[in-house]
Design brief:
Elements (H helix, E strand, L loop, with lengths): L16 H11 L10 E2 L7 E4 L2 H14 L4 E5 L1 E4 L15 E5 L3 E4 L12 E7 L3 E6 L4 E6 L1 E9 L2 E10 L2 E3 L2 E3 H4 L7 E6 L4 H8 L8 E6 L1
Parallel strand pairs: 1-15, 2-13, 2-14, 14-15
Antiparallel strand pairs: 3-5, 4-11, 6-7, 6-12, 7-8, 8-9, 10-11
Length: 221
């Protein structure tokens, strides 16, 4: 009671008139507007946005397999008092993180430096306790080390550490879920579109891209 509904209708991420027209049509529920986008998968630099994790994991595994370099595995250290307290959905980075040089990765934790959750990088070197990653966008290398996540519960003034999870804060990122892409700005995107997707989910995926010429749609069942 007393709330006012406010609709945000100004697109800030792009000034491309073709893309703005399509985004507005999708936001209004005209999903057939995707037919005016480039059809296909894009190129080697395209970031693929997909509606669920199974599609993301499958695509990343395929791209990973194509790299001929030897892989290196990093095993997470998980500590908890009760096994039921730590569930699979709590995994931020993979429990077993397998990487190769030239793999595309995403940083999975906000760190104290200028790296932020969602940045896309390329693996440059692999070592036992750290990984050297490179950003083409910033032309910058960065040594990324094992990080720790904690879940804390509070009871009055006291706190209890439910679990800790230590791992290299990276994951493969040729593809990611549309949900994970929220907040990102990308200039080369392929969105996987299934017919039952809501207009809101489709809009989020399409609106990550700034460039009509580099936005692709891949329709599947």
């Amino acid at each position: 009671k007393g709330f006012t509904q406010i609709e945000l209708d100004e697109i800030k991420r792009t000034s491309d008139p073709k893309l703005i027209e399509i985004l507005n049509d999708v936001r209004d529920g005209t999903l057939s507007a995707v037919g005016r986008l480039n059809q296909g998968y894009g190129d080697a630099e395209t970031v693929h946005l997909k509606p669920f994790n199974t599609l993301v994991d499958k695509y990343n595994a395929q791209k990973f397999q194509y790299i001929s370099w030897a892989s290196r595995k990093y095993e997470a250290i998980i500590k908890f008092s009760n096994p039921s307290d730590f569930k699979e959905k709590d995994y931020v980075s993979p429990v077993t993180l397998e990487l190769k040089v030239w793999a595309r990765v995403m940083v999975t934790k906000n760190l104290e430096c200028w790296l932020v959750n969602g940045d896309l990088w390329t693996v440059k070197e692999l070592h036992s306790e750290y990984v050297l990653i490179h950003s083409d966008r910033f032309n910058q290398d960065y040594w990324i080390e094992i990080a720790e996540w904690k879940r804390i519960e509070y009871q009055g003034m006291s706190e209890r550490v439910v679990w800790t999870f230590s791992q290299i804060p990276l994951k493969l990122a040729w593809a990611m879920t549309i949900h994970k892409s929220q907040g990102l700005t990308l200039d080369n995107v392929c969105v996987t579109y299934v017919k039952w997707m809501s207009k809101e989910l489709l809009y989020v995926g399409l609106s990550r891209c700034t460039n009509y010429e580099k936005l692709f749609i891949h329709q599947t069942k």
